[in-house]
C-alpha cells in the first residue's frame, strides 16, 4: 500500500518537472493566463497566437476559478503568469496578492495589464512591483496633441505614442516605425525602486484626469513623467511587464491604422503588434538571457585548478558567456565584463578580453598579500539578466625555504653589516698593537 502511495505521488509530480524552468531551454515553458471573461481569448488572439507559435503552452482560466493554484506539493505548475483581468476584486482558489508576489520572488515572470476598471487588488500588485497607478479611479491618460485620429474622431484618450526606451535588447533590433496605440490609465515609477524602467512614455502634452469632469486642480501625473508601459527585472532575474492598457494587446489595436494628429504620415498598421511581440520576447527570456559556464582559473602555463595560490604567482582566469536567442545559445559579445580579485575590497580589477566566440579571459599577478580571496564577476547591463559569480581561493605567503638567499634590495644592509665587522676588526688591531 505504501508503494502505491509513493508511485501516485511520483506520477503527480511528473508533469511539474516536465514544465519546470530549464536553464538549458528557457523558453520551453508553460504560462497561466487569467482573464475576467473568456472572450478575451478571441479578442486578443493575435497576441496569444504569437506566444503559442514561439513554443509556449498557454493555460486559460477565469480569474475567479475556485480551483486556481500556482503550485502543488511545493512545486510551481507554471513558469509565467499573464494577468488580463484588471477588474478582478479577488482571485479564486489559493491565488492572492501574496501568492503572485511569491511566484515572482521564486524567479517567475509576470505580465499585468490594467485599464480604467482596475481593481484595488491589481493596483496593489503593481505597487509592490514599483509602479503607482493614478490614485483617481476615474482617471485615464488624455492628450490633446498626440492622440490618434480614427473612426471615433475627437477621442483624446486614444493615445498614439512613439516614446520608446532606447534599448535593442528590450525592444529588438528592428526599429518600431509606427506609433503604439494606448487607451487606459497612466502610472508613475517609484523613485525608491531602481529596477523599474519606462518602456513606453506619454508625450509632454499628456496628463492623467477624469475625461468626464472639469479639472478643478492640477493633475497628479503630467507629461513624459507618465509611463504607459513599464518593465521590472528583479534581482533574481524574474521579469515583469506592467501596462496601463489591456486594449494595447487587443486585435483591434494590433490591426488598426494610425494617423497621429499633427503628422501627415498615415500608417496602415499600428506599432502595437511589433511592440507587444518584442516586449513579450524580453519578458519571457527569449532575449537578453545570459548564462556563464566553464569558469576556470589556473597558474600561468598550467591547466589544472590549484587549491591554493602563492603571493606573486602569475595566474589566468577565464569563463564563457552565452545568450539565449529564443531557439539556441549564441556567444555573447561585450567589452565590459570585468573580474575582481577580492578580499574585503578589490585588490585586482581586470577587464576580460573576448575571442568573439563567447570566451572571456585575462591574466594577472597575485597581490603581495596573503589571505582568503575571491574571484568575483558581477555583471549588470540594461536589459540583460545579471551574472553573479564568485569562487573562493586562499593565498599563502612564501614558505621559509622559498625565499631568495640573498635579496638584491638588501645588498646595502649586507654591505653595512660586513663593513661594521671589518671596521671593528681593524679598530681592535690598531688598539691592541699601537703604542
From TrEMBL:
Q: Which part of the chain is the OST48 N-terminal domain?
A: 30-283
Regions that span the bilayer: 411-433
Full protein name = Dolichyl-diphosphooligosaccharide--protein glycosyltransferase 48 kDa subunit
On subunit structure and binding partners, the annotation says: Component of the oligosaccharyltransferase (OST) complex.
Organism of derivation = Dioscorea cayennensis subsp. rotundata
In the UniProt record, the signal sequence range is: 1-22
Q: Where in the cell is it found?
A: Endoplasmic reticulum membrane; Membrane
Q: What is the lineage of its organism?
A: Eukaryota, Viridiplantae, Streptophyta, Embryophyta, Tracheophyta
Coiled coil (UniProt feature): none
